[in-house]
Amino acid sequence: MKLYNHIKDLLATVPKYSKDGKLFKNVIVEDGLKLNPTLLKLLLNDERSRKHFFQEVDGVTVFDKTKFQQFISNKEFLPDSFTAFSQNIGLTANGKFLTEANEVVLDFPYKDCVLEGGQTKEDQKRKEIFWNETLAPDEIDRLFDPKALTNLKRYDKDGTHDVKEIKDTDNLIIKGNNLLALHSLKKKYRGRVKLIYIDPPYNTGNDSFGYNDSFNTSTWLTFMTNRLKAAKSLLTKDGQICVQINDHNNVLLKLILDEIFGIDNFINLISIRTKSPSGFKTVNAGLFETAEFIYMYANSKKESSFNIQYEKTEYDENYTGFIENINDQMKDWKLSDIRVILCEKYGIDVEKTHHPYSKLKKKIGEDRYLVELGQLALDNNESVFRLTAIGNDAGQETIDVREKSKLESNKVFQVKRENNSDRYIYNGQEMAFYSKKIKSIDGEDVPTTLLTNIWTDIAWEGIASEGGVTLKKGKKPEKLLRRIIEMSTNEKDLVLDFHLGSGTTAAVAHKLNRQYIGIEQLNYGKNDSTIRLQNVINGDTTGISKAVNWQGGGSFVYAELAKNNQNYIDRIQAADSDTELRDLYKELTNNHLISYKVTPEDLKAQNNEFATLSRDDQKKMLIKILDKNELYINYSEMRDVQYKLHKDKAKAQQIFTINDKFYN
């Protein structure tokens, strides 16, 4: 029996609280405020009410009258487990509005709620139940119970195969509600995920966030908070999370992340240029929006590790020094200027020409001049250098040599250092060699600079064909995910994306030899992540494949959360005739999976009215009367004969065995 029914029946046993089945809420609330002995004794002697409204403090049992008042005063006595604030919004302190308290904080509706979020289509709008964590713990406990896995398949180069077990090292793709899937993963994967990357709905009004209601922002905040809290428990101690967002809700997202992961664990806000204004018309007032952002947090910043990253840069014109005979002994080095080589190539005599380098630029053009000089520097990077100042914090030996070299001009001095590269000093300055800027990126030696928190070098145009699947909104370049994964993980580390979309994160992790878990509840049909990953296994040549020399191979396991009422929702959404909807209405009239607010008698009485509704309204009504806490089958109940996970007994036993191994 649900908690509110239990408490209602309990209170109804006291004549002063009830008559003809109707509770006198004001009397109950007043007795609660006065700590009436009759009420306290009634609640204290009942195990369930004692658990929810009392707590032990140093051996003394204390009654939480505020919690009890919220429970009793909730609209219609807890019909939907809506939050106590479902009818109000404002400044509150300790649960009381400004008019009732002296301390003030900004609160929002649904703050202490759980949004299950059962959307399965991008264009689907839903009215969701907001389960309150304080007022409806029974419902939430059941909602978060691990769900049974079904329809399991293993994909590899040879096709699909039956799954006998899910190994600790398996890549895993889960289809189903991502909040419930995250809670289902807790026991097996708690503390094992090195990196979480998500690209959630941005709640712009034009994206896939389909839970828009009168408290739109609060709904999105609740949706995000529930999922981020669940995901945090899966991170390793040195794990990191990256959340991508645009500027519509990025400040609100920062507040959530600060609260869940801790402001001290903030690492970076990365700004990314996602498109160029060229070819776009300005629709809204203000500047053209070209940026998105990635918030990067550590589970524990003290434990977190980071792989230094570099990005390609252009030739630095300060590197003009040149050692003509680098392979000779240092005392015999002949220092020159690399620009002399280029002048000689184009017949300009440096010694006889006034401003020879300016003349060369004018002769061949500045662009060509820089390209050729850059190539010369790259080809001779071990011999090319620039002079840089030496500060007084460089170490005493270096400072001493610096002063000595000033007295002995035009001579190179060497300072040998343990566990570090040697220093070369000339005329009181350090010789910084161009070779230190040269790194291999995508198999090519190029000049580089340290990666900053502003990324403008990743192309977002032309990525539609990556992976052989398309996504109308929000597809991310494989190069972007490669950078994020490489800077936060090493090979074999586990990566999680619970807003998987077209599967970019999983595809890149697969190519980079990382283990991954992907969760997606929206249906993308032929552009599903499983299609993309099959292409990857078969040797996909798009995206980062060439850069990492991807040849194909590997495998992943596909699983679905076992549907219960979600099957009805799928059927309702797919229905395209009045006859199908009427048949579903009749079927639900005799179904135990309807909401506890609705009785079969109520449905039968509304039969004629149902027939007058539009098809869309009929669908909305049918979805509304379903018990949203029964969308999926709990692991603990999967053997119940009513669920019939598989008609074939042998296949059903195999599903039970896999689930038992997975959860135990």
* Gyration radius, rounded: 33 Å
Describe the largest sheet: 11 strands, mixed
In the CATH hierarchy, the architecture of the largest domain is 3-Layer(aba) Sandwich
Assembly category: single chain
Helical segment count: 22
Shape verdict:
elongated
SS-based structural class?
alpha+beta
Q: Strand order, main sheet: write it out.
A: 11-10-29-12-28-27-13-14-16-15-26
Low-confidence stretches at least 5 residues in length (pLDDT < 50)? 78-89, 98-107
How much of the sequence lies in strands comes to 15-25%
Q: Tell me roughly what share of residues is in helical segments.
A: 25-40%
What separation lies between the terminal Cα atoms?
Answer: 28 Å
Number of strands: 29
What does this protein structure show overall?
The protein has 664 residues and is an alpha+beta fold. It has five domains: 1-72; 74-136, no CATH class; 144-309 and 456-561, Vaccinia Virus protein VP39 (Rossmann fold), CATH 3.40.50.150; 321-450, no CATH class; 565-663, no CATH class. It has 22 helices and 29 strands. The chain has an eleven-stranded mixed sheet with strand order 11-10-29-12-28-27-13-14-16-15-26, sandwiched between helices. The protein has a six-stranded antiparallel sheet with strand order 19-18-20-23-22-21. Strand 1 (18-19) and strand 2 form a beta hairpin. The longest helix is centred in the middle third of the chain and has 17 residues, at 216-232. The chain is elongated, with a radius of gyration of 33 Å. The two termini are 28 Å apart.
